Amino acid sequence: MNELVLVLDFGGQYKELIARSVRSMYVHSEIRPGNIKADEIARLAPIGIIFTGGPSSVYEPDSPKCDPKLFDLGIPILGICYGMHMICHQLGGEVGPGTAGEFGTITVSPKKPLSILFGDSAPFDALMSHGDSVKRMPEGFRVTSTTSMCIASCENEARKLYGVQFHPETKHTKCGHEIIQRFLFGVCGASGDYKLDDYIDRQTQIVRQKVGTEKVLLGLSGGVDSAVCASLLSRAIPEQLVCIFVDHGLMRQNEGDEIERVFSKRKLRFVRADAEKRFLKALKGVTDPEMKRKIIGTEFIRVFEEEAAKIGHIPFLAQGTIYPDIVESGGKHGATIKSHHNVGGFPENLKFVDVIEPLSGLFKDEVRILGKKLGLPPSLVNRQPFPGPGLAVRIIGEVTKEKLDVLRRADAILREELDGAKQRPDQYFTVLTGTYSVGVKGDARTYSPVIAIRAVTTGDFMTADYTPLSHKVLARISSRITGEIQSVSRVVYDITSKPPATVEWE
Length: 506
Prior knowledge:
Layout: E1 4-9, H1 15-23, E2 28-33, H2 38-44, E3 48-51, E4 77-80, H3 82-90, E5 94-110, E6 124-136, E7 142-146, E8 151-156, E9 161-164, H4 176-187, H5 196-211, E10 216-219, H6 224-236, E11 241-247, H7 255-263, E12 269-274, H8 276-283, H9 289-311, E13 316-318, H10 323-328, E14 354-356, H11 364-373, H12 378-381, H13 401-418, E15 427-441, E16 444-457, E17 465-466, H14 471-484, E18 490-493
Parallel strand pairs: 1-2, 1-3, 3-4, 4-9, 10-11, 10-13, 11-12, 13-14, 16-18
Antiparallel strand pairs: 5-6, 5-7, 7-8, 8-9, 15-16, 16-17
């Protein structure tokens, strides 16, 4: 077993970022509820614990708290923002409303003697987001840094308890990575024994032991998670995996063919259900985005069920569930069958004995790394995020075959231009806006659909900034789209961040 650091969740939006930061330093981390009992923590035997931030005020009666016995376990603890407040409050200090909140990048000044968390005494910029502040230290604690408005960090070195008011897990805190690193290796004594190669071997053993000689059924969507899941299982239980790929005709250019090309060569049974006409018929005349999603989800379930019935009963269902899915569902591994690719749940009457989720301990970036180790092509492993209903929700209004073909080509042009860029956005795609515009092509007047380009930069997809692509790049993309697609004569660029907009248009 790998050394473990627990991230206890008190409602902070950065819990996954904290856990991923720890794993990036080759230390295994898991997210657990903040109210987990001390006895359970002792059983898990972590080498360290990190408390997340949270939106509550720790002095309110109903605010989340940790088990007070946790502080007597002798395990090093790092409290971040609300986590620091909770340490101080529960150990006898005082926390209250600040004279003024601090939001955004604030200068932090370390105090001497330096905390083990700080490399030197030079002031540094850190991300702050708090209205409450620590007013009085608990017994045995000392202040280790301040801002002009608050106590920025504190510690009880003898008990290995540390608190920071700022967020070291974000890129906005200049030395945040080093602070977490010093906690892990300088305080917790981590050795850095977490490797993804070990994960492959461990999951292979687990799957073989659970499945035996039985077959496993997987709904292969073509997304990164299900593709990596299929690759891992085909290695673990060759010839025992059956993959059903429901081709709803709403995918990007050539994606269905690429999925078939990659997985028809693997040691598994690959079934491609060509259901494009069926989905388009069901979507005819529908313009409401939520109705589109419901129709696509319902049709997906029906097609999957029909294809599964042709194969005969298979006792195990595999899913590409990843760790954030588990965290958001309250840690109920396999308790309910996850909605397939965000479009709908599997039918209950298939009556599986158990659910196999070999990626449920990984974050998305780790899944991509695992995919490369398993030999998947970069075009699939690095695939852009894609909504479950596919291009249907990137076409504003009714979905038709003609509109899909136009959008597919425009999207392919955008990806060809940006995929190889040195500093490419985190997500980019095109939208058929449903708006028509006057244009001129070949000395003739046109009245054609408007294509919008969407490109964003983000660390967590909870917030996102539009990417300021150069005018030169945008001009080249626009020229290609209008030149290579006869029916398009106008291209616009979406410069709205999230919030107030969402990443997708529908």
